[in-house]
Amino acid sequence: MTVTHPALILLLSPWCLALLGLVVGSFLNVVIHRLPQLLEREWLGDVAGYLQDEAAMARVLAGSPARHSELSRQGQALAAEVEALPALSLSRPRSRCPQCGHVLAWHENIPLLGWLRLGGKCSACGSRISLRYPLVEALTGALFAAAALQAGPSAATGVYCAALALLVAAAFVDLDTTLLPDDLTLPLIALGLVAAWQQWTGVSLVDASLGALFGYGSLWVVAFAYKLVRGVQGMAEGDFKLLAGLGALLGWQALPSIILLASAVGAVVGIFMIVARGHGRNVPIPFGPYLAGGGVAALFFGQQLSGLWPGF
Ligand SMILES: [Zn+2]
User: Fold this and answer.
1) What is each CA distance from 107 to 89, 111, 293, in whole angstroms?
2) Distance CA 174, CA 32 (A)
3) Crossing angle, helix 205-230 and helix 237-250, to 10 degrees?
4) Is 15 exposed, middle or buried (0-12, 13-18, 19+ CB in 10 A)?
5) 101 alpha carbon to ligand 1 midpoint, in Å?
6) Distance from the alpha carbon of residue 125 to the mean position of ligand 1, in angstroms
7) Distance 140 CA to ligand 1 centre (A)
8) What is the whole-number distance in angstroms between the Cα of residue 99 and the centre of ligand 1?
9) What string of pLDDT tens digits covers the 312 residues of the chain?
10) 102 C-alpha to center of ligand 1: Å?
11) H/E element holding 197?
């Protein structure tokens, strides 16, 4: 669906979206850093609450009532500890240097330029600021511009940019923590289905729905088989939901290419980590970044990739 309003045509131009991508990338840095912390705080709070439920402890555990009240006391202490943590949200507190606590001035916080102007060092204490921050910003800017070049001034460009932002956040959160939060994967599924329903992307609602279903199901089957053979969980539910989101966005036809690319690159990197870095075979390798990468490749090179698959 092409847009005709001049302001929208300007907004959806590659240069404009590159700039918007830099700003969004700057926000994604915050999401990547804080979303896992927020979730883990919440889970720890839940654990603390559960430990205080003496009736539940008595149902689950053997042992004396004294043992259950001891767990309850530990739950209370844990809850107090979680409660006492400094307030955190995606918007507060403002970005600061992790070494010295220096709060970034507005001009130090400008995407890409702020980091370049500081020479990659904190203006207060001189400690290095990770290259990750400007890289995530530049990557998001480049992906947004590429989406504009791919789909032109259309609703599809907006959909792809939103999806790419979710994929960048999901990939880096998974890389850092091996978590793939629902807060990132479920919106991708919803976005794909709504975009198909509204005919924004040229993927039919049937293809998108089957994409979500097969995306989830195919990895579920692989994980189930792996668990039967090796006896351990090889993949997490977050991976299923991420591939469901990509299937919803791009249609079920894109799934073979995504899985093939993600597995091939994942296997090469995995073998490299075992051989060159001395990782044990059981060190978990997050699959999310490879799925996200495969999804991005399918988004931009879908036709060329599906050409490798006669019948799709
Ligand atoms: Zn500092």
Assistant:
1) 22, 9, 32
2) 9
3) 160
4) exposed
5) 6
6) 4
7) 26
8) 5
9) 788 888 888 889 999 999 999 999 999 999 999 999 999 999 999 999 999 988 888 888 877 888 888 889 999 999 999 999 999 998 888 888 888 989 988 888 899 999 999 999 999 999 998 999 999 999 999 999 999 999 999 999 999 999 999 999 999 999 999 899 999 999 999 999 999 999 999 999 999 999 999 999 998 888 888 888 877 776 788 999 999 999 999 999 999 999 999 988 888 888 887 787 776 666 667 889 999 999 999 999 987 777 666 654
10) 5
11) helix 182-197
Report how far residue 255's alpha carbon sits from residue 222's, in angstroms, rounded to the nearest whole number: 14
Task: Tell me, in angstroms, the distance from the centre of ligand 1 to residue 108's CA.
Answer: 12
Q: Where are the domains of the chain?
A: 179-306
Evaluate whether 90 touches 31 at the Cβ level (below 8 Å): yes
d(CA 180, CA 204): 27
CA of 257 to the centre of ligand 1 (A): 44
Contact 173, 184 (CB under 8 A): yes
Tokens 């390798």 locate to 285
Residue 185: burial class (beta carbons within 10 Å; 0-12, 13-18, 19+): buried
In the chain, DSSP assigns E strands to: none
Measured CA to CA, the distance from residue 72 to residue 264 in angstroms comes to: 48
